Amino acid sequence: MIDSDVLERVLATAVRTGADFAEVYAEDKRSTSAGLDDGRVEQVNSGRDRGAGIRVVKGDTTGFAHTADLSEAGLLAAAEAAAAAASQGDGVTRTIALTRGPQRTVSPVAQYPDDIPKAAKVELLQRMDQAARGAGGSIVQVSAGYGDSHKHILVANTDGVFITDEQVRTLVRVSVVADGDTGMQTGYQSAGHTIGFELFGQVDVEDLARDAARQALTKLNARPAPSGALPVVIKRGSGGVLFHEACGHGLEADLVAKGGSVYRGKQGELVASPLVTLVDDGTMTGEWGAISYDDEGHASQYNVLIQDGVLTDYMWDYLRAKKEGRPQSGNGRRQSYQHLPMVRMTNTYVLNGTEEPDDIVRATEYGVYVAKLGGGSVNTASGDFVFGMTEAYLIEDGQITEPLREGNLIGNGPQVLLDIDLLGNDFAMGNPGTCGKDGQGVPVGDGQPTLRVKSLTIGGTAA
Amino acid sequence: MSEELQELADRVVAQAHAGEQVEAYVSRDVETDIRVYGGEVEHFVSAQSEGIGIRVIKDGRTGFAYAGTLDPTAIAEVLAEARDNVAFGTPDEWAGLAEPDGVEMVPQELWNEALADYATDRKIALAKELERLTLAGDSRVRVDDANYADVAVESAVASTTGLRRAGRENGCYVSVSTLADDGDETQTGFGFSVGRSPDEFDLHKAATEAADRATRLLGATKPSSKRVTVVFDPYVTAMLLGIISSTLNGEAVAKGRSLFKDRVGDTVASPLFTLVDDPTNPLAYTATDLDGEGLAARRNSLITDGVLQGFVHNSYSARRAGTKSTGNAVRGGFKGTPGVGCLALQLQPGTRDQAAIVADVDDGVLIQTVQGLHSGVNPISGDFSVGASGLVINNGTVGAPIREFTLASTLQRMLLDVVEVGGDVDWLPMRAAGVSLVIRDITLSGA
Question: Which domains does chain B show, CATH number per domain?
């Protein structure tokens, strides 16, 4: 994208005012999306985003500027702007020597989406529409979406780091509305991986659509969810968001450093049930949060955050790691070249336990079985979090019985981690997610085996 | 400046082939984002971005493409891509661009020269001052970050249907995030102040609110489950109106995704509930003179004395519904085509302030924050369930803080269960104005 001698001159310009560190992050991204709604392919969209963000650090101050102009003149102007933003210091001359890092491929791509005819992408949508509508006469509306992106990134900094990488992601989603005597209900499914069009050799889009339809149809007969604290069993692959919200964010070193996390100062302490080992893993091939390098040029890693209930480490980016004099962990990510990097999760998951999933349900006299969670959010300082249950059932006498209407669950992160009392042996990754922090969204994955939380507050209306 | 963008959009539209509708939307924005921590600048972002989105419609089929640059080669590529994408759409008899409708624009003052000329070091000083004021009030309060940000956007749209409009707008805000500690417990708060220029900021109010929000929840306990009357703070009401607006979206109605389809003329809310969408009111934060397709923004009555009046439309949803656009096309920048949405919602206010309202509540909760609106509220089924925190109201008096509970009902019932709208309108930086709102018979789930 940019020659190394140009990068060296741009970085030298960026630190000319006496800065400690400078970085160029450049990206060139092509994306395609298509949407079907109400039986029609509404639109195919193509996008192109290309530019560079230049970061300059002096003392505790970071200056940042970005440009869509990748010529040497454009990059030099952005470097001057970022340097001016970081400082008003004296002139210094530093020579930068970049060493090209090895090519890493965590997620190999078999079929680049750029090489696939648009008609083949649109056809997936039509198949999903037909499959969902075929699931029952009560299905009244279907919308389906397809998206792919192919992004080249380049990172170079004054420490000599110089890497390039490409990231290919492909995704489909479908949402369905069913109408019955008690009103309308909805169902949703999606599949997304850090791979190309070969995704559709692994995922049957019609099965996805039928599953979304099944959720909506099931909920037509749902009764109001209970109100109050109950044991909750969460199906494998559907509750990773619980860990993402309940403790993942609280283990991000930037939040920890400012005292905005309940997990501050808890390294080496028991913060979860001894059943829980929690990992953040950017190297998980093909998963939605997989990356070869993070957006600061650090190779992705497998990081154990909680081992047998004991907090082992936080997640780190360049700035926080440097301040603490320790290595980065491959968690410096950003939404695009227009954004500053910060500490972000990749694929965050809980390792297998030993219980048979059926035994977990059987061991629960009265409670709620959550088969699918929606989004969630957390206040990292207090630990309070919520997440939505989009498909849930009552458990009565150790059996899954009636479907429940939607609602939120609420809990306190540290308490919920300690309250996990049964952990299954049936690990699965969940749906692709977009994690939002400070206004930036990045792709993340999560996963977990079937598990039980002793007590969570169910936000329903039934007594 | 905007003329340059208008000419650029015009040049694209002039390349339309026979039988083709073409729309070009061009925008450029310049942003400053300053974060202060511990009396020092933590980051300073100075950014300019620009881009173009092109929509091509032919024989009822629509194609779209965008690029984050105004480089002429890239623009030619975008037009070619959009054209290429047309072939894959399903013909839709209602597809098409907006046509000029003769509705007069109500001019708004959206540009402030004082902000455009404001010096950088004064912007930094504002963020530092906000941090200092926030820390000065209460020793239990820490500041997570204090921010100053401004943005200036110019945009232009042109179409083969003869719409041709350009405009510019700027604005700025300061904000502060707080933490309050008491032993092992930490709670959070925030405060902000918004203006067309920094002269309109009220730093003291932002600092006080940020400290109060964090400290008032210290010592909060989890309440027991019961049915209660809730008083929503204006900020919470504005968030609720944002959810309700998606049920009034003409496109959702046309596609059978609104719980209010087929309900025009019915009583859907308490007689106290009168809701308008009025972007022509200059007090509204999101006041504007144009919608996302370049039609004049206008005042629309949605619910009057509890009776549903109608829905908001862009040109597409209006054609489907056999009506005219209400000037409610919403565009999220150059990367997409216009959808439908409310622009500036306002509940008709009552007469009493929050203190007077609370004095009449025997057993209730004053709700100060809600969490999980995106995960626990379904605007299609109407199921409503959110996490919340607030203060107990007992015999007309505000008492102890409570947290980690949920509130649940359905949107349909909540609208009918409104018992009072406050007189304390707050023009928040959202697409809806805030006002205290009292709703009875909500299920509170806690311990």
Answer: 2-215 (3.30.2290.10), 220-447 (no CATH)
